[in-house]
């Protein structure tokens, strides 16, 4: 039987209770003139509480209504919040196929709900059709793990460098899930130029003046205490025109040698990178020229190398590294000039002068050699020494002069 939804809630409840009462009494009326035999029976009473039950969505649950001394009376179940009659005694009234009723010798009446859904949550009423209806209530709380609603959440985003970005993440569940944001690589989230956080809470993540450093994957994580926690990955791409950095703009190399020129680029989307001569002629791969482009981290960085083998006169001049993407293009110039070949110095007298022991030993050897050379020279020289008799006469003359000097000094005093 359908209840008129236009009636106020109290009126609707009164109508439902009246319907239940009629159903419970089987629609039978007793003639006022008939004689009846009165038999005294104790009134039925509830002997236990239905209580509050929490169940995860998808599980089966049963609510128990225990009655003592039921006798000829009947028991009905209803979903109080929706004014919906579910069962009356052994009969299922609702059209919900997931709901059934059973009893334990008319003492405990079970309301079975299979594959519980979030819509089953609410206040349930068990009623006995006594003269003054007896009722008791229980509450079914359905918990639902979080589920991210893709239709209301952001997908992968592409934004120009310097623009603002807003990411949204919506999730359903019971209790209502909370949302937090993290970067997939663990780095900080740059909210603005003065605020960076490891984790941000809220449905919407706002970032102002985004830069290439903010590029990467962001995780929207939804949780409500009911496992499992779920997440969604949102990839943020930041587009900007190519930029170049050249370590050495002037490079020298001698004839016949090889040399490597280098450029570092940053661009997103990934740029087209190549080398040209000063007149714009693109340099093709050959035995003379070998170009290598290496991806670096972060992914928007690239390392360009150009190796020039067996340099000849015509190889000197300017070279350009060029980078192009849909956002723009740029180029850098490196000048290759002729330098003198490396000089060859004579080998040192010892094999290894870098070690202290060998160096010290070599010095001693040099000293010994110099002494030997000076000794040899001394031996080769000829000195004119005076004869021995002449030396003795000279010494005698000198001694005589000294004695005479001393006598003269004594006489003067």
Automatic annotation (TrEMBL):
<dbReference type="InterPro" id="IPR051170">
    <property type="entry name" value="Neural/epithelial_adhesion"/>
</dbReference>
<dbReference type="InterPro" id="IPR013098">
    <property type="entry name" value="Ig_I-set"/>
</dbReference>
<keyword id="KW-0732">Signal</keyword>
<keyword id="KW-0325">Glycoprotein</keyword>
<feature type="region of interest" description="Disordered">
    <location>
        <begin position="336"/>
        <end position="389"/>
    </location>
</feature>
<keyword id="KW-1003">Cell membrane</keyword>
<feature type="compositionally biased region" description="Basic and acidic residues">
    <location>
        <begin position="366"/>
        <end position="379"/>
    </location>
</feature>
<dbReference type="InterPro" id="IPR013783">
    <property type="entry name" value="Ig-like_fold"/>
</dbReference>
<dbReference type="InterPro" id="IPR007110">
    <property type="entry name" value="Ig-like_dom"/>
</dbReference>
<feature type="transmembrane region" description="Helical">
    <location>
        <begin position="391"/>
        <end position="412"/>
    </location>
</feature>
<dbReference type="GO" id="GO:0005886">
    <property type="term" value="C:plasma membrane"/>
</dbReference>
<dbReference type="InterPro" id="IPR003598">
    <property type="entry name" value="Ig_sub2"/>
</dbReference>
<feature type="domain" description="Ig-like">
    <location>
        <begin position="44"/>
        <end position="136"/>
    </location>
</feature>
<feature type="domain" description="Ig-like">
    <location>
        <begin position="241"/>
        <end position="335"/>
    </location>
</feature>
<keyword id="KW-1133">Transmembrane helix</keyword>
<keyword id="KW-0393">Immunoglobulin domain</keyword>
<dbReference type="Pfam" id="PF13927">
    <property type="entry name" value="Ig_3"/>
</dbReference>
<feature type="domain" description="Ig-like">
    <location>
        <begin position="146"/>
        <end position="237"/>
    </location>
</feature>
<keyword id="KW-0472">Membrane</keyword>
<dbReference type="InterPro" id="IPR036179">
    <property type="entry name" value="Ig-like_dom_sf"/>
</dbReference>
<dbReference type="Pfam" id="PF07679">
    <property type="entry name" value="I-set"/>
</dbReference>
<dbReference type="InterPro" id="IPR003599">
    <property type="entry name" value="Ig_sub"/>
</dbReference>
<dbReference type="GO" id="GO:0043005">
    <property type="term" value="C:neuron projection"/>
</dbReference>
<keyword id="KW-1015">Disulfide bond</keyword>
<keyword id="KW-0677">Repeat</keyword>
<keyword id="KW-0812">Transmembrane</keyword>
<protein>
    <submittedName>
        <fullName>Lachesin isoform X2</fullName>
    </submittedName>
</protein>
């Amino acid at each position: 039987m359908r209840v008129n939804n236009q009636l106020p809630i109290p009126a609707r409840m009164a109508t439902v209770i009246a319907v239940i009462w009629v159903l419970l009494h089987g629609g039978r009326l007793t003639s006022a003139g008939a004689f009846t035999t009165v038999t005294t029976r104790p009134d039925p009473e509830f002997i236990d509480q239905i209580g509050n039950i929490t169940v995860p969505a998808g599980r089966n649950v049963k609510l128990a209504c225990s009655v003592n001394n039921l006798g000829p009376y009947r028991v009905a179940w209803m979903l109080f919040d929706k004014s919906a009659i579910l069962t009356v005694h052994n009969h299922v009234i609702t059209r919900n196929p997931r709901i059934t009723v059973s009893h334990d010798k008319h003492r405990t009446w079970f309301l079975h709900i299979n594959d519980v859904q979030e819509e089953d949550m609410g206040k349930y009423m068990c009623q006995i059709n006594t003269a003054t209806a007896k009722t008791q209530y229980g509450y079914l709380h359905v918990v639902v793990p979080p589920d991210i609603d893709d239709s209301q959440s952001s997908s992968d985003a592409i934004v120009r460098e310097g623009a603002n970005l807003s990411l949204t993440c919506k999730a359903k569940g019971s209790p209502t899930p909370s949302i937090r944001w993290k970067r997939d690589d663990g780095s900080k989230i740059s909210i603005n130029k003065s605020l960076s956080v490891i984790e941000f809470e809220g449905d919407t993540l706002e970032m102002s003046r985004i830069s290439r450093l903010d590029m990467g994957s962001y995780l929207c994580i939804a949780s409500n205490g009911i496992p499992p926690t779920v997440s969604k990955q949102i990839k943020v791409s930041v587009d900007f025109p190519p930029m170049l950095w050249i370590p050495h703009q002037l490079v020298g190399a001698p004839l016949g040698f090889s040399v490597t020129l280098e450029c570092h680029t940053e661009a997103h989307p990934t740029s087209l990178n190549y080398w040209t001569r000063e007149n714009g002629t693109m340099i093709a791969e050959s035995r003379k020229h070998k170009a290598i482009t290496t991806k670096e981290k972060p992914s928007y960085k690239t390392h360009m190398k150009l190796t020039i083998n067996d340099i000849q006169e015509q190889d000197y001049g300017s070279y350009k590294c060029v980078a192009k993407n849909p956002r723009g293009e740029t180029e850098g110039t490196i000048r290759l000039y002729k330098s003198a070949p490396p000089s060859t110095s004579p080998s040192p007298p010892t094999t290894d002068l870098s070690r202290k022991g060998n160096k010290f030993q070599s010095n001693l050897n040099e000293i010994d050699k110099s002494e030997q050379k000076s000794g040899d020279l001394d031996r080769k020289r000829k000195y004119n020494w005076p004869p021995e008799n002449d030396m003795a006469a000279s010494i005698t003359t000198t001694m005589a002069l000294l004695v005479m000097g001393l006598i003269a000094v004594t006489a003067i005093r």
